[in-house]
Write a structure and sequence with these properties.
Blueprint: H1 2-23, E1 27-32, H2 38-43, E2 56-61, E3 67-71, E4 84-88, H3 91-102, E5 108-111, H4 127-134, E6 139-142, H5 144-151, H6 156-185, H7 192-205, E7 233-235, E8 245-246, E9 257-259
Parallel strand pairs: 1-5, 3-4, 5-6
Antiparallel strand pairs: 1-2, 2-3, 7-8, 7-9
Helix pairs in contact: 6-7
């Protein structure tokens, strides 16, 4: 199991180094203090549940061997990752290990930093640590594009599931309108709740789930009980599957509605 983990992490480091070379960067410095950077854990495939009370650094150069800087109390924190390990106890030792690790790699080093805090999701490294790294002659660059590459690019399987969900949702939308029309023609009561439940059953039939049942908040007092009547309009929402009945409204956009 340990060898498999090392192989997995070694492949991830190779992928990171290739991405650095493609981006024209000299390295990527990961830093964490008490799981302050969840991005680092996900990208490096580390377990965020492990006990962490001390600062650690992991430097991946565009070429060459990575460096691990860990505290003596938690010296095994990054053992699953490849690279040379440097153990510190005092802050002076920490700074010296960091300086040596960054020396000779080139000045353009990516960190979880966003200029002017433009992307707060990326801005995980505190200002003092940025100042420390810059004091070694490093030009700290944002890792935003790198993070996007490793966090937001779909795998083939993820793309397939997305297409599957999109096709089925499109089908279910039309089926829901058909169900409304069927109920009205049969003079059966049609409510938002009944159509919501119809949609959820179709989701289940397709093997899909949603985070919570969707329902329009058009009538906060009793949203589940609004009844569709002949001559009403059903507004089609482009953001989610939501249906609500509108009668006597003069500002309806016909392109957004389905007559029943």
């Amino acid at each position: 199991m340990k060898n498999e983990s090392l192989t997995q992490h070694a492949k991830r480091v190779n992928d990171i180094q290739q991405a650095l070379r493609d981006a024209g960067l000299d390295g990527w410095l990961f830093y964490d203090f008490r799981t302050s950077d969840p991005l680092a854990y996900r990208i490096l495939k580390l377990d965020p549940e492990t006990h962490t009370t001390r600062r650690w650094f992991y430097f991946v150069p565009a070429n060459g061997e990575p460096s691990k800087i860990v505290h003596r109390i938690e010296s095994g924190k990054l053992d699953s990752l490849p690279g040379d390990k440097f153990i510190y106890l005092s802050w002076q030792e920490q700074h010296e290990h960091l300086r040596k690790s960054l020396a000779g790699s080139g000045p353009k080093i990516a960190m979880q930093y966003s200029p002017m805090n433009a992307i707060p999701y990326i801005s995980r490294v505190d200002g003092g640590t940025i100042e420390l790294v810059r004091s070694f002659g490093v030009e700290v660059q944002t890792s935003a594009e790198l993070v996007q590459h490793f966090e937001a690019v779909w795998s083939s399987e993820q793309r397939e599931t997305h297409v599957y969900a999109a096709e089925n949702i499109h089908r279910i939308i039309h089926e829901a309108f058909g169900e409304i029309a069927r109920g009205l023609r049969a003079e059966e009561p049609v409510t938002e709740f009944s159509i919501q439940q119809f949609i959820l059953r179709r989701f289940e039939d397709a093997g899909m789930i949603c985070d919570s049942p969707r329902l329009s908040p058009s009538t906060p007092t009793a949203p589940m009980l609004i009844t569709a009547l002949p001559g009403s309009f059903i507004l089609r929402s482009s953001r989610e599957i939501s249906c609500f009945w509108m009668s006597g409204r003069s500002s309806i956009n016909p392109e957004q509605c389905t007559a029943i």
